[in-house]
Design goal:
The protein has one domain. It is 2% helix and 63% strand. It contains 1 helix and 15 strands, in the order βββββββββαββββββ. The longest helix has 5 residues. The two termini are 32 Å apart.
Length: 280
């Protein structure tokens, strides 16, 4: 099992993974078809759409809090002593959260500073050097802390046949002074085979796993804690010609509780998809 810890700043969105039904079984994968190298051309533009809902059983009744974000990220790639270095700039960003008790909170590209910088070896991410940040109260809407894992999933150590599996553990931490979050996901990847999308043959990798998420923040002088766990299922489509993720769909369904001083724990949940697509 590969274990990696990323310590970065960002918001509170959680990322995991749905299975693609249209894939067909292919033959053996040569070692270099499932490995990270500098792609040609050495630029890629991704669109990431994150739609989720938080459910809380509060003293005033059940609250449904939808959150949404849409991001366009332009990535450039170059050689690095450890493998490949990717640098991403945010070209488009919109996010919002609607709380029946507090109204709608929204943010956009003008609130984003910094860039995404990642170093990875042949199998995947080795270090998240930096991530963009979202300023002000809308920082909790930032999706950037988990984007590296969405775009660059772990790959097998060598040549694998359909049905082969490999396991990866991803841990990320947020501590920006306003909120502390620790999230650990254990992913199991399975090579399903080949599928054809828009005339291109892509490798279909099914993903399943388990998420554990802990958060703590201060509101109105009270320290509030959240704890949620749940299974994940999903898929990645890998473009062997480009050497990049071409498409992915991540589904989340977590459940747990929120603790507020002087109150009984409140049941809560988090669910919704993340869609990732390589534009060019």
């Amino acid at each position: 099992m590969m274990g990696r810890r990323w310590t970065i700043s960002g918001g509170l969105t959680i990322s995991c993974v749905l299975t693609l039904a249209c894939a067909t079984t292919g033959g053996s994968s040569p070692e270099d078809t499932l490995a990270y190298v500098v792609p040609s051309p050495a630029i890629a533009v991704y669109e990431i759409v994150d739609s989720a809902a938080v459910y809380v059983n509060s003293p005033v009744g059940a609250l449904d809090i939808p959150t949404n974000s849409a991001t366009t990220l332009s990535m450039t790639f170059e050689m690095d002593p450890r493998g490949v270095r990717a640098t991403g700039s945010v070209e488009r960003f919109e996010a919002s959260m609607s709380n029946p008790m507090q109204g709608t909170l929204s943010t956009g590209l003008n609130d984003v500073t910094g860039h995404l910088e990642i170093v990875f070896g042949r199998r995947g991410v080795e270090e998240v050097v930096s991530v963009p940040t979202v300023g002000g109260p809308a920082a909790q809407l930032s999706p950037f802390h988990h984007i590296a894992n969405d775009l660059f999933p772990r790959l097998p150590a060598g040549a694998v046949d359909p049905g082969a599996t490999w396991v990866d553990t991803v841990t990320w931490t947020i501590d920006d002074g306003a909120i502390k979050t620790n999230s650990t996901t254990v992913y199991t990847h399975t090579l399903v085979g080949d599928t054809v999308v828009d005339g291109r043959t892509l490798r279909h990798i099914a993903v399943a796993g388990d998420v554990a998420n802990e958060a703590e923040f201060v509101q109105a002088g009270a320290t509030i804690t959240q704890s949620m766990t749940g299974p994940t299922t999903g898929f990645v489509l890998w473009d062997t010609e480009r050497g990049l993720l071409a498409e992915a769909f991540f589904e989340r369904e977590l459940a747990g509780s929120m603790t507020i001083p002087g109150m009984a724990p409140l049941n809560m949940g988090f669910e919704g998809p993340v869609r990732v697509r390589l534009q060019y």
